[in-house]
Amino acid sequence: MGDTQDWTAAPGAAERARSVPAAAWSCAVTADGVREEYVGAHTVTEDGAVRLAVPDDSALFGAVLCAPRQEPSALLEFADVAPVPVRDRIRARLFLSGWFAPFEGTLLFRPTRVVLRRSAGAVVVDPDEFRAARPDPLAAAEARLLTHLADAHPDAVERLTRLVRPESLLAATRVAPLAVDRHGLTLRIERVRTHGDVRLPFHTPADDVTQLTERVHALLAQASAAARPRALQRQRADGDG
Fold this sequence. Notes:
Mean pLDDT: 90
Distance between the termini: 28 Å
CATH architecture of the largest domain: Roll
Protein name: DUF2470 domain-containing protein
CATH superfamily of the largest domain: Electron Transport, Fmn-binding Protein, Chain A
Largest sheet: 8 strands, antiparallel
Shape: elongated
Pfam family, one: DUF2470
Strand content: 25-35%
CATH class of the largest domain: Mainly Beta
Structural class: alpha+beta
Helix content: 25-40%
Domain DUF2470: 142-219
Oligomer: single chain
Radius of gyration: 21 Å
């Protein structure tokens, strides 16, 4: 079920694609018929190359050393996982095709094809745009911010639902923070068999955590001035009875 608001400012595809590996803790690598999963082993350079620290005895390292020109074709896959437990927790997947080469005791991967796959479909991102883009400034802090909001401030999450259209809350069983970026906060609205997402845009983008705190407080102030959605009021009354 699609739940939308009038204005849904959001990062572009290239920025979104750069944000996924910046926040992801693991990646899967397929090269020369070898597939391995690496946890906490990658970093992304300013120009979008992926630097991977792998053991010298790994099959991937051997494949790179033995390949012609020491540059085997490879596929890297990153999963964008919502930090708060929700239904359909994987928000997006990023696929990078390109070449590996040894670099200062690590492997350096340069993508030549970039595909971002979300629930709305797959988007092919121009490699030059991927290299020029920068990850969302909140990407690295998003997991900590959202889990704190969900665990420590459930009352604030409920208050934010006052900014959601009442029809989007019909039959809702749970509302949880799904994502946050410099442009806005996204809520996941779960129902018995379906779910939908609603985006609450900030009045101006947030470039750091301090600015994000101000933007969220502005949303909460706006929500405090609004009446609680009648759909949610009915659910509360039913639950209290």
